Amino acid sequence: MTQIYDRVALVGLGLIASSMFWAIKRGGLVGEVSGYARSPETRRKAREIGLCDRVCETVTEAVKDADLVILCVPVGVMGAVAAEIAPALKAGATVSDVGSVKADVIAQVGHELPSNVHFVPAHPLAGTEHSGPESGFAELFDNRWTLIVPVEGSDPAAISKLRQLWEGMGANVDEMDAEHHDLVLAVTSHAPHLIAYTMVGVADDLRRVTDSEVIKYSAAGFRDFTRIAASDPTMWRDVFLSNKDATLEILGRFTEELFALQKAIRDGDGDHLHSYFTRTRAIRRGIIEAGQDTAAANFGRGGAAPK
Amino acid sequence: MTQIYDRVALVGLGLIASSMFWAIKRGGLVGEVSGYARSPETRRKAREIGLCDRVCETVTEAVKDADLVILCVPVGVMGAVAAEIAPALKAGATVSDVGSVKADVIAQVGHELPSNVHFVPAHPLAGTEHSGPESGFAELFDNRWTLIVPVEGSDPAAISKLRQLWEGMGANVDEMDAEHHDLVLAVTSHAPHLIAYTMVGVADDLRRVTDSEVIKYSAAGFRDFTRIAASDPTMWRDVFLSNKDATLEILGRFTEELFALQKAIRDGDGDHLHSYFTRTRAIRRGIIEAGQDTAAANFGRGGAAPK
């Protein structure tokens, strides 16, 4: 693999940034990766595990010589961090991000940056329920999709180089506009997360079923919701607040459909339920055929394969 | 492992029955296991893969000498199957089932059975999104819970023997009354399944986001819903229709909470969202500590462990 950038700075050192670092090292994609995290504890931990070639004490120091700066902070603080780094950016540098929402991030970050840097927003569709500098691993992006969301005037050469970096980290890359990105993510990620959080909250609240019962008997479906609902609370608070319209639109559709299915249950309309449940199987097959999940039962929990 | 029953009959040869057969063989728990499935194709497939010591052409033949008969058919046909086997049952035999709903199954099956057999309902809380005779594997019940739901007059010796069989197949066993069972399962299984089916249906319906986008970008959370929503449609139709009251009660609570969270998003109430999302993490930790799921990120998809 040829080196794509001389110097890259990662601002924020959580799951995504740490996975990027290991994927960059695996591919030999960058000369030097500097890093910065606001919390001294995170910087200490990063140094301890060798995360980043150089962990800096200030964000200015981390970004000043970088050819590419990637903002890996919660969506709610993207604008503030952009304002902080703006004076230190090298002329001609590219600034990107990994935020789960794009229109709001573009609105926050765009006007903070000087005109002599390129802004190329992006979003890797990958993650786990773990967070923090120790949660990353080089394979996180392999065969997953990263969406690049160019803004008006994004430099084609800067886009092309960022695409090469993501491909070097194992990802497939598509381009999309911000509004469509936010709607697609509301469907595939934001609404499912809110629904999972809600269901786990309901179970926790219910007086007549104890938490210990919920925990012991979770294998019947509920535990998959708890995995999703264990994701980072700060990240998700910011996602919902900054992708408000699309998330509320999809949740509105969801509620309509849920009411229709509740009515079918109440009315004993088995045919409606059966045909609905049959239709949803096709999407699952599509996901497996597209290599976005495994067909192994239960994700192969326990290592047992179906005979 | 000592042999617990001389002869066991499995009626219905899907995921649960086939896993029971392999678990029984692994433990040497039964002298001979006979099996019956209504579909000739399923019987042929069962013979081909060695599922059951003897696959019978009629249900009467399968059950007539059995000390234990286990109904492994969809909840909606339990009563009809019980009526069919009733005249052929051996005096003193135990009849059990593996249905996901208990009050309705007890109402259907109880009055069909002759007074000289023992009825001991049960429900193993284990499964995968696959179905059919080839989907079973011996480890399905290992460290999962099976709930035994005795009815009035259930013979203590018959209960104790059935408990031994489930423990021999790797399961932990609890006893519970039918009404409480149905409420607990509405929370841990039935409502989550309906919600997952609904979300997948919404995604499939949405004109502005194509199915191919939903499929490609599913790794961001949605694919976990599709796994749940790929479960057997007939089984789940019957579950919702026969556990109507408890399912609708839990869905009602779910909708209330969802509306409260939607309002928090609309109002920009980040504190409410953050504290809600923090609380739900504790249940996840409980499930991992109780050995009901793995802490490996993403269920260890792709085999990568967090560093």
What does this entry look like structurally?
2 copies of one chain form a homodimer. By secondary structure, the first copy, chain A, is α/β, with parallel strands linked by helices. Chain A has 2 domains: 172 residues, NAD(P)-binding Rossmann-like Domain (Rossmann fold, 3-Layer(aba) Sandwich); 116 residues, 6-phosphogluconate dehydrogenase C-terminal like domain (6-phosphogluconate dehydrogenase C-terminal fold), CATH 1.10.3660.10. In chain A, the strands form 2 sheets. A 6-stranded parallel beta sheet of chain A has the order 3-2-1-4-5-6, with helices on both faces. In chain A, strands 7-8-9 form a 3-stranded mixed beta sheet, with helices on one face. In chain A, strand 5, helix 5 and strand 6 form a beta-alpha-beta unit. Helices cover 50% and strands 12% of the residues of chain A. The interface between A and B is large, with 120 and 120 residues.
In short, what is this structure?
Chain A has helices spanning 15-27, 40-49, 59-63, 78-85, 103-110, 156-168, 178-205, 211-216, 222-228, 233-242, 244-267, 270-289; strands at 5-11, 30-36, 54-55, 68-71, 94-97, 118-119, 122-124, 145-148, 172-175. The first copy, chain A, has 307 residues and is an alpha/beta fold.
CATH topology title of the largest domain in chain A: Rossmann fold
Shape of chain A: globular
Helical content of chain A (DSSP H or I, runs of 4+): 40-55%
Measured by DSSP, the beta-strand proportion of chain A falls in 5-15%
| Structural class by sheet pairing and helices of chain A | alpha/beta
Q: What Rg of chain A, in angstroms, do the CA atoms define?
A: 21 Å
Largest interface: which pair? Answer: A-B, 120 and 120 residues
**How many discrete domains of chain A?**
2
Largest sheet of chain A: 6 strands, parallel
Q: Low-confidence parts of chain A, pLDDT < 50 over ≥5 residues?
A: 302-307
Run of helices and strands of chain A: EHEHEHEHEHEEEHEHHHHHH
What strand line-up does the widest sheet of chain A have? 3-2-1-4-5-6
Mean pLDDT of chain A: 93
At the first level of CATH, what is the class of the largest domain in chain A?
Alpha Beta
CATH superfamily of the largest domain in chain A: NAD(P)-binding Rossmann-like Domain
